[in-house]
């Protein structure tokens, strides 16, 4: 078994099967980082394919029923900074898909960090009524090419409008969709 390419079934996972948004996830993507098995990802309906971006590296090919989730509590506490980066490629410009969701419980309770790609445009949700997005038109990442999104909190308990977005290495000017901004505080 090639550990970089294959999922492991039921090995080292915190649970042998979990249901994520109605889909069974009985495989794990192993984490070889500092926190080890605590951060293995529960996986369902994801196929590993050659990335085409970097030789010998693989990417997850997701379908409408794909799931990839890490059920670790993390080293975060209230008010801490949360930042992440992800690479993706898609040509789906008709739907809104969840790229990353960080937070406990369901979307909609106080302070989550959920990034979607809404018809090719990245949107950061802190709550359903608080959304950060790139200013202006012209940000369509559903072009079938590889793109990188970075979401960064530059300090603890930052205002929602102060969260930074980078696309393909460039900082993007953003604004709150409804004009309101509060401090971000993860529990």
CATH topology term of the largest domain: Jelly Rolls
Low-confidence parts: 1-5
What do the pLDDT scores average to? Answer: 79
State the helix count.
0
Share of helix among residues? under 10%
By DSSP, the count of extended strands is 15
Strand content is 35-45%
Q: Give helix and strand order, one letter per element, not per position.
A: EEEEEEEEEEEEEEE
State the shape. globular
CATH architecture of the largest domain: Sandwich
Number of domains: 2
Largest sheet: 5 strands, antiparallel
- The rounded distance between the terminal residues' Cα atoms is 39 Å
For the record, what CATH class of the largest domain applies? Mainly Beta
Overall structural class, as computed from helix and strand content, comes to: mainly beta
| Spatial order of strands in the largest sheet | 8-9-10-11-15
Rg from Cα: 17 Å
3D architecture notes:
With 187 residues, the protein is mainly beta. The chain has no helices and 15 strands. It folds into 2 domains: 1-74, no CATH class; 76-187, Jelly Rolls, CATH 2.60.120. Helix content is 0%, strand content 43%. The chain has a 5-stranded antiparallel sheet with strand order 8-9-10-11-15, with no helix packed on it. Strand 13 and strand 14 form a beta hairpin. The protein is globular, with a radius of gyration of 17 Å.
Briefly say what this structure is.
By secondary structure, the chain is mostly beta strands. It contains no helices and 15 strands.
